[in-house]
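Input record, target 12 of the design panel.
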């Protein structure tokens, strides 16, 4: 892979990350009891969840999400600018991270801070990541889906192996300060998921406020929200909103995998996720 550096077994795109910052966030960044962290493997619905949580905080008022970019509303723990933003922020903070368990800030494990972790069918994560890679200059452009599948199965993609990321984070699933969501459930029952998040965060919304959260976090509304388009801050980064808001449906992998690729993926999935009850993964 080009333009990556490896840190403790994980490849990071060099355009976005710095080794010393990843190290600093793990070893020195202090997560406080009142903080909430959105943690995902990339392409699992991170930005959707950020939008929902922000809208819950404003009781459905869209002013904040329409005037402040996502990375300022919920700064990344693992990037330089956002980490310093977080360090200087007072009060309960909302933050995001794609970090695998072993690189996550150590202070979190001594705190009562809350983590919301979203899982998504890794086949859809893969397809989403493939098209993302082909349409930005942030990560190297995968030549074909076949080679990208091979890399994905080996963990040679940004943030490493989906299987390890998911397995390690799921070890927290019985903890009170950990909420496990899935992209598929969010899609199938968005209202129910928003309620679940409210309960977890100790927030109460009136039915009309919940309607507003639903309205402004819809795929269409997010597609139209300019605060969601990365290119407004980084002129050297080409990502258009269409790539981030590509299709927004579960099961698109079926339009792209061959039968042999699907069978091989299943085999690896069974091996790597052995020990987890299949009921934990709500995709078909
Ligand atoms: P697809 O590429 O399959 O369309 P992330 O935010 O973690 O990078 O995830 C991006 C994926 O979430 C993309 O998937 C994107 O379309 C989908 N997504 C973003 N907002 C969404 C929404 N409001 N509803 C459904 N899917 C959404």
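The sequence produced for target 12 reads:
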């Amino acid at each position: 892979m080009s333009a990556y550096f490896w840190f403790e077994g994980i490849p990071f795109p060099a355009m976005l990350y710095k080794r010393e910052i990843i190290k600093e966030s793990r070893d020195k960044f202090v997560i406080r009891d009142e903080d909430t962290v959105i943690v995902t493997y990339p392409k699992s619905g991170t930005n959707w969840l950020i939008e929902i949580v922000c809208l819950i905080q404003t009781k459905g008022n869209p002013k904040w999400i329409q005037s402040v970019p996502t990375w300022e509303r919920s700064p990344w723990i693992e990037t330089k600018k956002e980490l310093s933003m977080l360090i200087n922020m007072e009060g309960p903070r909302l933050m995001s991270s794609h970090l695998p368990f072993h690189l996550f800030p150590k202070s979190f494990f001594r705190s009562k801070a809350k983590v919301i972790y979203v899982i998504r069918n890794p086949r859809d994560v893969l397809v989403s990541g493939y098209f993302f890679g082909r349409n930005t200059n942030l990560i190297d452009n995968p030549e074909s889906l076949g080679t990208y599948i091979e890399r994905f199965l080996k963990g040679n993609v940004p943030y490493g192996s989906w299987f390890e990321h998911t397995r390690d984070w799921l070890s927290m699933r019985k903890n009170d300060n950990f909420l496990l969501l899935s992209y598929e459930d969010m899609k199938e029952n968005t209202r129910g998921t928003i309620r679940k998040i409210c309960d977890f965060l100790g927030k109460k919304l009136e039915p009309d406020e919940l309607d507003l959260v639903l309205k402004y976090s819809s795929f269409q509304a997010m597609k139209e929200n300019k605060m969601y388009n990365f290119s407004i801050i980084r002129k050297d980064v080409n990502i258009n909103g269409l790539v981030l808001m590509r299709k927004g449906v579960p099961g698109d992998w079926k339009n792209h995998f061959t039968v042999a690729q699907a069978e091989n993926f299943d085999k690896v999935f069974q091996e790597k996720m052995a020990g987890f009850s299949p009921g934990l993964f709500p995709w078909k």
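The two ends are 31 Å apart (CA to CA).
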